Amino acid sequence: MAVVTLTLESAHLNQIIEHARREQPYEACGLMGGRNGQVEAIAPVPNASRSPQTSFEMERQAMVDSIIQFQRAGQEVVAIYHSHPQNAAVPSETDIAQATWPDAIYIEGVL
Ligand SMILES: [Zn+2]
Fold first, then answer.
1. Distance from the alpha carbon of residue 16 to the mean position of ligand 1, in angstroms
2. Where are the alpha helices (DSSP H) in the chain?
3. What is the pLDDT along the chain (111 residues), one digit of tens a residue?
């Protein structure tokens, strides 16, 4: 696997943390848009999973809308984030099975 550097400002990190706190006890998920590994925007996406306490599935239309917004700003998806409100910050089996986006970084965090 290639080594990739992701740069994000604390303001973006705070947006993600706030989003994750709002969604508790459910997992929060979303996209990071930017260029060349530099995060320029955070797009929270609703979690459409039927078991949102332990998994996430990005709501399709909101996800597509976010990607279109990124593209209009000359950005692309540089990373996908989601929170683990109750588990460790390691990928679950479902996470690994579903991590199928090419060229995207998957980020997990525990609150
Ligand atoms: Zn997960």
1. 15
2. 10-23, 60-72, 93-98
3. 556 788 889 999 999 999 999 999 999 999 999 998 899 999 999 999 999 999 999 999 999 999 999 999 999 999 999 999 876 778 888 888 877 776 667 787 776
CA 39 to ligand 1 centroid distance, Å: 21
Catalytic residues: 27
* Beta-carbon contacts of residue 77 (< 8 Å; ≥ 6 apart): 31, 32, 33, 67, 70, 101, 104
Looking only at the bridges linking them, the beta strands covering 38-45 and 105-110 are unpaired
Please list, in sequence order, all residues whose beta carbon lies within 8 angstroms of the beta carbon of residue 93, skipping any fewer than 6 positions away: none
- In this prediction the pTM is 0.86
Ligand 1 centroid to Cα of residue 98, in Å, is 10
